[in-house]
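Example is below:
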Amino acid sequence: MTAAPVFPDYDATLRELPTHNGVLRYHEYGDGPPLVLLHGSGPGVSGWRNFRGNISVFGEHFRCLVLEFPGFGVSDDWGGHPMSTALSALELFVDELELETFDVVGNSMGGGVGIGYDLAHPGRIGKLVTIGGVGRNIFSPGPGEGIKLLQEFTENPTREALTQWLNSMVYDPAVVTEQLIEERWRLAVDPIALESARRMYGRVAFTEMMRAMHESDAPPQWSMLHKVRAKTLITWGRDDRVSPLDMALIPMRLIPNVELHVFPNCGHWAMIEAKADFERTVRSFLLQKN
């Protein structure tokens, strides 16, 4: 029987950073060079839930800073589109903590935010690790199955819809325990977090975002990947049903200094479902001499 994982203490690691937009909350654990961990999106998500199982390992070498993005029910909501405010929050966060240079691990949306920061502030991120979610579909249809289920939950937030979405995030359904469902459910139906989610994944909002992207003269992020300065490790679950593996092809080809690692029998949450292999791979990459 596998022992239950031991996580660092939630309250002991929790910090607050007052800003002009409200309070940013984050967790701090470990000593060493700064490593900023950025969570993904979805019902009941938080930085703590994405990375609480990993920071005990990374904290042996790094000062782990797990940022809670505005609009997800932990940090104060800044209003607007949560994906847009996430980059602004990261910019303010690292400046307030006086982090001149730092490394980043970003899950899905968090990886995109890390890339966005590197493009806007070249040279500040030393090494960047992404977990699924970056690039664009080449062979697979988009949006993926997981995104569609996420939209369905956002429109009609039931426990059954949440469970269906959670199952789309993983390869092994045993990962989706009753404890996980209950934990996610409590935050997912928080009125403020749900309203924020609808600004991002409600059908009307999502359709409008896609229309604006297609009509915009601004280049999409994937077309700017050749300008990424950070040494980058792209990690992916081979069986990801949220952002299929073919999305990795463009960033793998365009980012100048990049490696790709694919975990078998693994869905969208490589840091959870392939925990030991993910930690070993990422730790080795982060500790490499430049």
Observations:
- Residues 11 and 27 are 9 Å apart (CA to CA).
- The chain has a mean pLDDT of 93.
